[in-house]
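Repro:
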Amino acid sequence: MKKKKDFKRIIFILFLVLTLFSVFGKLFVGVDENTMDNPNNERKYINNSYNGTINNLSKANYEISGLCNKVVDGDTIDVVGVGRVRLVGIDAPERGEEGYEEASNYVKNMCFGKTVYLDIDNAEPKDRYGRTLAIVYVDGINVNQELLKLAYAKVLHIPPSEFEKGLGIVWFRETLKTQH
């Protein structure tokens, strides 16, 4: 009889411990260095329909996230757990070309050592070199769009792609040209 009570007690304790881990584990999902530094979790987010501050980068905007541990150039990064990522919809200058340093440095400042969020191109998730094609978000900022806005990259649209040509930025540049 005592063994049966001990067995029930052990099962109850295991159940209790697993329940606690489950509850506390869910409380800490999504906590990263951005939410710790930014208690209100405000993020800048830019897409085709909204340009301002929102409180959260919605999971609907990205499929996966990871730490950027290398910046190859202005349109290619390495992400832990993902591998090599090619910023979709843009083409930044290659090594030796004018603007290479500016584009690469911008991407380094934005991405290196930070958690990046990837909206992978569902129509064509990989290029011919095996790189993941994605829009990259850091702190809610669409890095692909910013590279176009700052003229560090040009539009490169290779169908099929779920993303529109120019990522919604072509209108922005045309507006700037007509104002000057």
